[in-house]
Amino acid sequence: MSFTPGSKRGEMAEINMTPMIDVMLVLLIIFMVAAPMLTTGVDVSLPESRTGKNLESEALTVSLALDGRIQFGAKTVREAELKSELKSAAEASRKRPILVRADHNIPYGRVIAVVDLIREAGFSQVGFVTAGAAVPPPEPAPR
After folding, report:
1. Hey, which bits of 16-125 come out as E strands?
2. 103-111: long-range contacts, CB 8 A cutoff, minimum separation 24
3. What is the CATH number of the domain that holds 80?
4. Taking the chain, what is the end-to-end CA distance rounded to the nearest angstrom?
5. In a domain, 32, yes or no
6. pTM of the full predicted structure?
7. Which parts of the chain are beta strand (E)?
8. In the beta sheet, which residues pair with residue 48?
9. Under a CB-based contact definition with an 8 Å cutoff, are residues 98 and 125 in contact?
10. Does some domain include residue 55?
């Protein structure tokens, strides 16, 4: 008992799904484009590495900006507050690694001081985020 569209016998009893599917696809594309932009924090100029692995999806991050700001996740904290924030996060997720994002112009001692705070808070897996190098791997030597 279905009615054909435009028939004079009655109204169409089926829902037209095409507009809803079009809207859902547009929203999907918008979220796919916008999601990578939402994960960035402090603007940091990272050093490059050819051998690094990508662990950002499962790790907590601590960012050190050139102007001295420290950001833990999405929250800007002072160095004195960082240890307590890390301890509360360590209780919930001790197995997760911590990634340190530090500007390459920050003094080495400052980075090590933050790494010490991370380890004192109870995290044992600490890694460093680097920018992927555009340098190709070295070619093998000819025989």
Report:
1. 48-49, 60-64, 70-72, 75-77, 98-102
2. 103/44, 103/45, 103/46, 103/64, 103/65, 103/66, 104/45, 104/46, 104/47, 105/45, 105/66, 106/64, 106/66, 110/64, 111/64
3. 3.30.420.270
4. 80
5. no
6. 0.53
7. 48-49, 60-64, 70-72, 75-77, 98-102, 126-128, 131-132
8. 131
9. yes
10. yes
Q: How far is CA 31 from CA 13, 42, 48, 106, 141, in A?
A: 33, 21, 29, 34, 46
93 within some domain? yes
Domain that holds residue 125: 48-132
Number of domains the chain contains: 1
CA-to-CA dists, residue 34 to 39, 40, 64, angstroms: 9, 11, 24
Q: Is residue 10 part of a domain?
A: no
Q: Read off the tokens for 83.
A: 């240890």
Q: Rounded to the nearest 5°, which phi and psi values hold at 142?
A: -70, 150
**pLDDT tens digit sequence for 31-88:** 888 877 766 566 667 677 676 665 555 678 888 888 888 888 888 888 888 888 888 8
Structure tokens at 110: 């400052």
Say how many residues make up the chain: 143
